[in-house]
Amino acid sequence: MLYVTKKWTSNLEIGTDWIREVDGRFTPMQLTALKQAAEWPFEDYDVLYAWAYSRGEASKVLQFLDELESSSLEECLLRTGPFFHSLTPEECTRIKNGYTPLLRIWYEHYFRHVEHTLLPLLIEDASEKKMLESKMDMVPLIEYASGGIVIEDIPELETIVLLPTVHNRPINTYCFYKNLMLVQYPVDVPSDNEEEPPTVLLRLTQALSDPTRLRLLRFVAIEPKTLWEMQAELNLSREMLMHHLLSLRVAGLLRVHLRGEGTERYSIRPDGASELQMFLESYIRI
């Protein structure tokens, strides 16, 4: 998804160099095939996530793709039923037939070469969150895992799935289905060089280096605010406000409060300030 859509690239730790490096793994024909998906609806990925989740227990990548390729249209529609209020047979056919060969190319030329490095990180982190499930309530656990997503009043929500990811670090994302919410949260990759500042510390200091972002944190410190309220108070365009919000969110300094009907409000995340002091003191050895 990140490679094809180039979404959030400027905010991702992997950056544009990763895009260029991966480009070199494919033939011109394969590049053309992969990049055609950039014109397809972004919501297609929600369908792919739903199909993967509906399998139940984890499987090998190629096993999943083999099953998807051999599934009939009726079987695919049946699997999407619990997640979507409406998905037409035409949409289902296009996603199934369009993405399956592209995912095979992606796996063969990229993912299988990094799988052995990334999967242990994801499995270890997922195991930690699974262990915490018995010790923490749902809302604090989700906020902890995602670095600031707070679930408030969403009456129809029955299931929340936490999905650890590496490539989209430090961004967390979420998507809603009928009665289910999928939260993708980033897992940090350990640094080999202890002399370099940790990425968490760099995110925090960079986010706090802008006066506008400091004023924004001050404004949301007392109670959660909507986007409209922040725009009016700070006299910012929506585009610039979203830029600042993303910087603060990826640094773990903001909470986003999710309510029914897609309502979002933002507040300061007190743990973020504590983490700044902790990582700073640890790095400079106070």
Question: Would you mind describing this structure in some detail?
Answer:
With 286 residues, this protein is mainly alpha-helical. 55% of the residues lie in helices and 11% in strands. It has 13 helices and 6 strands. The chain has helices spanning 2-5, 15-23, 28-35, 44-53, 61-70, 73-80, 89-132, 138-146, 199-207, 211-219, 227-234, 238-250, 270-284; strands at residues 149-151, 159-165, 173-176, 180-186, 254-258, 264-268. A 3-stranded mixed beta sheet has the order 1-5-6. The chain has a 3-stranded mixed beta sheet with strand order 2-4-3. Helix 6 crosses helix 7 and helix 9 (199-207) packs antiparallel against helix 12 (238-250). The radius of gyration is 20 Å and the shape is globular. It starts with a helix and ends with a helix.
User: Unreliable runs, pLDDT <50, ≥5 residues?
Assistant: none
- Biggest sheet, in brief? 3 strands, mixed
Strand order of the largest sheet: 1-5-6
Q: Approximately how much helix is present in the residues?
A: 40-55%
CA radius of gyration: 20 Å
Number of strands: 6
What is the count of helical runs? 13
Instruction: Please trace the helix and strand order, writing H or E for each element.
Output: HHHHHHHHEEEEHHHHEEH
Distance between termini?
41 Å
Task: Indicate the mean pLDDT.
Answer: 89
Could you say which overall geometry the principal axes of the C-alpha atoms support? globular
Strand content: 5-15%
Return the structural class: mainly alpha
